[in-house]
Design goal:
Blueprint (H helix, E strand, L loop, with lengths): L1 H22 L8 H26 L7 H31 L3 H9 L2 H17 L3 E3 L5 E3 L3 H25 L3 H13 L1 H12 L6 H22 L9 H13 L9 E8 L2 H8 L1 H18 L6 E6 L2 E7 L6 H18 L8 E7 L8 H21 L1
Antiparallel strand pairs: 1-2, 3-5, 3-6, 4-5
């Protein structure tokens, strides 16, 4: 009865992962991180199949049943060390823009992984990891805990790396994403602990499947709400945010929301002269400047469209628009000094503060900020 229950749980896990696979946008140009995520899903599906096979065959009697059980359990332990390694590899890739640097950081872990995989061969004779008795029943051996600890170490490694990245993040949205990635490993970790100390309970792999589903849903949400080039919130998300923030503001809350708008001076000329690829690198540079300028604040950053960007400051944003603009302009100067090989970036920046009498909707607030930005731009041209 218990065996059948765990087979059904494995079937549910496989179904969840197949749904994720079918929902993914597979293409020849998929990023290394996307490919690693797919490898993680395939490996987890295989683990579900092997785990279900182990539960079905354990204690049964038929020709070569014991030998078949040994093969399944050996494959199970092999994946027990490979799967957490794939998870750590995926997390490293998701946290780093440099996929090769991420690979180097996890490369050292391949040595103990290979040792543990090779050790499964002599285990078939000496039984120091697991044994199968004459009745074809599986039993743990002393080295089982070494394999479990290796698994936990990689789950913890991925979470610690994400927490460190969250601590160092300059933008609040990045911090939230890194914290989410760190805590996605908590469910499989807890399932593994329960499974290690309560023999006969099998929860780890269904919780791994749930964690993968959470990662996928978070990724889909970010694709819908973020600009793919800069990683900032997109125009759709800006509209949602402003609608929410302005929805319950009356005249008593005048001045509690500021919208800063900016664009890149001469961006069309940059594109025409240097090409769109260079222009894209300028836009990415601007996004990094804004993130640094809004570090440790609750500011909402968005790419409004083309070369236009927005910063929304609410009452709890810790800094006013003039302070933010001063920080952004300082960061522009520092960025230009750090990139002497690129054309210097120049921004025209204007802002508007929410006023219930003037702003009947967020569109009017946007229009006032946009108008102020163009006043600044025209003043530069006349100077």
């Amino acid at each position: 009865m218990q065996n059948a229950l765990y087979v059904e749980i494995s079937a549910v896990g496989i179904l969840l992962l197949i749904i994720v696979l079918l929902s993914q946008r597979q293409s020849a140009s998929a990023s290394a991180s996307q490919r690693r995520f797919s490898h993680l899903i395939y490996a987890t599906i295989l683990m579900h199949l092997i785990d279900a096979g182990c539960w079905l065959i354990d204690g049964t009697q038929f020709h070569l049943a014991r030998q078949f059980n040994y093969v399944l359990e050996t494959c199970y332990y092999a994946l027990l060390v490979v799967l957490p390694y794939l998870w750590a590899l995926f997390v490293e890739g998701a946290l780093s823009l440099d996929i090769h640097a991420a690979s180097r950081r996890t490369a050292v872990a391949t040595i103990p992984m290979i040792i543990l995989l090779i050790a499964l061969i002599p285990n078939l004779k000496y039984g120091f990891v697991f044994t199968i008795d004459a009745q074809n029943v599986y039993h743990r051996a002393s080295s089982f805990y070494v394999y479990s600890l290796f698994c936990f170490a990689f789950l913890l490694y991925g979470s610690i790396r994400a927490l460190i990245k969250a601590r160092d993040a300059v933008w609040s949205d990045d911090r939230r994403r890194y914290y989410s990635m760190a805590f996605n490993a908590v469910l499989p970790f807890l399932g593994g602990v329960v499974q290690m100390f309560f023999y006969g309970v099998s929860l780890t792999w269904i919780l791994v499947s749930v964690a993968i589903l959470l990662v996928f849903l978070d990724s889909q949400n970010r694709q819908i709400s973020t600009d793919p080039l800069t990683g900032l919130n997109n125009r759709r998300e800006l509209s949602k945010y402003l609608l929410h923030e302005i929805g319950d503001r009356d005249a008593s809350k005048n001045g509690t929301l500021a919208l800063v708008m900016m664009d890149v001076d001469g961006f069309k000329l940059i594109n025409d002269t240097y090409g769109h690829f260079y222009g894209d690198s300028v836009l990415v540079g601007v996004s990094e400047i804004l993130k640094a300028g809004c570090k440790n604040t609750d500011a909402f950053l968005s790419r409004y469209g083309g070369d236009e960007f927005c910063i929304v400051l609410s009452a709890n944003a810790d800094m006013g628009p003039d302070e933010i603009i001063a920080r952004v302009e300082q960061n522009v100067a520092e960025w230009n000094a750090a990139h002497p090989d690129m054309k210097p970036i120049s921004l025209s920046i204007g802002y508007a503060v929410w006023n219930a009498q003037m702003d009947k909707s967020y569109e009017t607030l946007l229009a006032r900020a946009d108008a102020r930005m163009y006043e600044v731009k025209n003043a530069k041209k006349c100077a």
